[in-house]
Amino acid sequence: MKSAKEMEMVLKEVCGKEIEACTYEELYTALLQYVEEESREKVAPVKGCKLYYISAEFLIGKLLSNNLINLGLYDTVKECLEAHGKSMAELEETEPEPSLGNGGLGRLAACFLDSLATLKLPGDGIGLRYHCGLFHQNFENGVQNETPDFWLGGHDWAQKTEKTYTVSLAGKDYTARLYQIAVTGYEGRTNFLNLFDLDTIDTEIIGEGISFDKTDIEKNLTLFLYPDDSDDAGRLLRIYQQYLMVSAGAQMILEECEERGSNLHDLPEYAAIQINDTHPSMVIPELIRLLGKRGIEFEEAARIVTKVCAYTNHTILAEALEKWPRHYLEQVVPQLMPIIEKLDALVRSRTQDASTAIIDGNQVVHMAHMDIHFTHSTNGVAALHTEILKNSELRNFYQLYPEKFNNKTNGITFRRWLLECNPELTAMIERLIGPGFKKDASELEKLMNFVDDDAVLEELADIKRDNKKALADWLKHNQNVTVNPDSMFAVQSKRLHEYKRQQLNLLYLIHQYFEIRAGHTPAAPVTAVFGAKAAPAYTIAKDIIHALLTLSKVCESDPEVSKWLQIVFIENYNVTAAEKLIPACDLSEQISLASKEASGTGNMKFMLNGALTLGTMDGANVEIAEKVGEENIYIFGQSSAQVIRRYSHGDYCAREWYEIDANIRRAINFLTGEEMLKYGRQEHLERLKNELIGKDWFQTLPDFNAYIVRKNQAIADYAQDPKDWARRALINISRAGFFSSDRTIAEYNEEIWHLGE
Ligand code: 26V
Hints:
By secondary structure, the protein is α/β, with parallel strands linked by helices. The protein contains 32 helices and 19 strands. Bound molecules: ligand 26V. The site of ligand 26V has 18 residues, from helix 6.
């Protein structure tokens, strides 16, 4: 362990001058280089089986502080910088956030890499080096606007290597180059995130906003994550991207295993591959193809690949379960089509059930079907989700292969989502129960000894107050909005999607607007905070953003209402923003339509940071409720069984609810009333109103009144008994241990991967 003095020597040497004389940019670069070297020291040779986690997304967040924490250097560096008048916070601002992911699926992959390295398990990530990643969001006149996020350019963590692989796309050869980001665990080993890219990518082809020529593969292949797929060219581009990732990845895996002594017939002893959702599914036929080229005949290759690969399902939403018209694959990856056909024939020899075919009667290729047939494990990401897969969505597959199905409830890394983002709370916990919880999260349970300790509860409340103040300062600095840290912070931050039901929150806020104007003020002032990006082509999602931004102005301009209710929308919500927002939250909004949110992981982050959850019995909320007990969570709404029944009967009629219920009618009509039209756009608001009355596919209206009651109960409890609120927050923290991704990864390893050292 280095002292601050030694750290000073290191920095001075790398920068070639006194720390005082360095810019933050220079210090950042020096530290990046230093951390890189320290991380490399922890690279260990692999014995036995190694994991390859293939994923289209890795939402890793900024790396400097995280790596310093994991290397045990954070306090030393901070002390050293402060001794020379430099601030860690300003240093952190110089680092761009890597734009390699979109939401929970990508963040989960990043948490998993941290836990693998922390548990000293050999496990690398495989993905793509997107030049602009997901778009940058800003609001212009109340509307989401998308621009490219040029996060590359300065000094970044991905090191260019000399390793390249040839990948054939539509019959033409391209050279995929490997870049590597070192992933250092907390007191653990160093693994790598392997990212592939082409040398020929050209950001100059980006035109207005995030538009570009989708057919110019050589220049565009890794420009953006999830390019707009509303046309053929966009959908083909997705397949091009996916194949680049899996073909280069599969070649790298085989090369590594052969170097370590595999004869490829014994590949399952050397490699485990986890397929993160369906985006990397083509790795199955690609591996079979590559094994074939090395002389292994088809049936054996299919058996080997089935043993090596495992698949994780992250959603039951039909539109997210990828399926491609056969002619797309014939165009982009003609070399895979004969293999996919043979796999389909093999399936048909196993079962008569046409619903499980890989290629259906309409010549559409179902990627998830291929995954389930030709991997040895299919897992859901929370207990309820896995049950729904087994009993509803994937029932026919479960009947075929009951032994393949298993649950792995998601988790989050406590290093980033507690140690890094909430140092004050971390220090308090450490003082009370010692440092063991950092590596064994179940030790948080020891905090239960303090739930009746007034001094501890007061301290916890003070920490929350400080974090709210810090968020308020950050919002002032970044968006020039002023919020009241003495109000209750109710936060809904996640991708914008109708199933997540930001529109339910919107209707509640309209309801509150009416109530306040009628003199029925809430028990405490409330700040409703949102963070959400909408997919650029998802019209209704963008309309919901517009309605919230418009309502925010309506509330702000009304002096009666603004005393009690403020709506804040964080621009460009990302990992960096989440790290500020989550520690400052009082009430965590997890209000998806039951059955639709596979797990959620934000729910876990908020709980760990001492927020109480207001949620439906969906995803991991169910397990959170089980852990904390019903008095320490606010549950409302229809059950998943009720929702599934309603869908299967097809008898939900939003208009009936609208016509019968005056509260619902009042809130929905307000969308196009004069207050809203004063600031908002009629076309957007009208479309949303019509959607809610005419369709409401995610059943917002049946849960509306229950949501109002539960939320107002939470606000009243918060206002009336702050000490009891703190007590319940502490119970939530102490019961959060289960949701550590270390636990999740240990389960994957014991039941699926069986990794070596
Ligand atoms: C699908 C699609 C479809 C086309 C547009 C772009 C796009 C991007 C991502 C996906 C995959 C959706 C699956 C997903 O992100 N699931 C989330 O996974 C989290 C980690 O398991 C889980 O906590 C969330 O509940 C689940 O929604």
